[in-house]
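Contributing new records

If you add data, match the layout below exactly. Sequence lines come first and carry their own label; structure lines follow with theirs. Keep one chain per record. Anything else will be rejected by the validation script.
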Amino acid sequence: MQSSKRILVAPLNWGLGHATRCIPIIKALLNHGHQPFLASDGVALSLLQKEFPNLPSFELPSYKITYAEKGRNFKIKMIWDSPKVLKAVTKEKKAVKKLVKEHQIDGIISDNRLGVYYKKVPCVFITHQLNVLSGNTTWMSSKAHQKIIKKFDACWVPDVEHKPNLTGKLGHLKKPNMNIKYLGPLSRFEKEETDIDYDLMVLLSGPEPQRTFLEEKLLFELKGIKGNILFVKGKIEDTQIKEQIENGNSTVDIYNFMQSEELQNAINRSAKILCRSGYTTVMDLAKLEKKAFFIPTPGQYEQEYLAKRLQKQVLVPFSSQDEFKLQDLGRIEDFEGLTQFESSMNYTELFGVFSIVKENSEPIPSSLST
């Protein structure tokens, strides 16, 4: 029996995916007698606070990540914002050091937060991007990311190790030289046998301004559809807001956000899903075995890669945001849809990493240049 550990869980605030896929990890920590401490910023932190209102939570410095208004400027915008991100990472390291000392944190789980690391406690990095796609600079961005990951005691990849898998080259290295553990696809949801109440569910997420651009486009396009539609904007706010629009032969139920249990029920009760091709969404839809249509975030190489890969495998069709038309949804019928992978995880063994005794006993410099 493992002794109870205090574990800091800190997902990146880039859309909702990093936070939502940490939910099953947090639940597993609780089930194994550990004490999770939550840390993030923005909507990611808000979501976790709503899901786990009784757990201690802390705000970390924001990376202030936003997308370019035009997809072709995505990489330029990321490069332009990199000094701002690096400054936030430095502040983040100091904040984490303070949290570890003040709350006697025994271990850290960082989901893609680069500065959530402290060399005196065991640290785990969660990512599905061992290779970071960035066009003609993929080799450089991948090597830089792998260098960061190697600082951590373990890297947890939410996918299966062998083929067939969901991430392809994103989550698999030809010659891995780090401590990688494959968790199997992570989802906070469970498949339920239920009646279908909605012909289509629109599920939005992601950083601004692209989330709003897609919301406006789809609300316009869906005026021509028949049937019952559920539209979840993915805007985490203090109060849930619901409105209903009658549009000829269709009814559109619009929510600003849903929490996990309600969202699970809604997806199970929907025949088809229209959404981004973010990896967490892909894992969720595979768990619930849903047919879907993807619209990748413009300029985000990872989402474009996943959408193209799944279309090539005849699982899910996709369209670019600019070119999407309502009639494209008819293509869903020609695709198989996603199915779940059977995988089991020994969390007792996985959480054993937090029993590692770190040998670093020298004083940590104030610059935290680890």
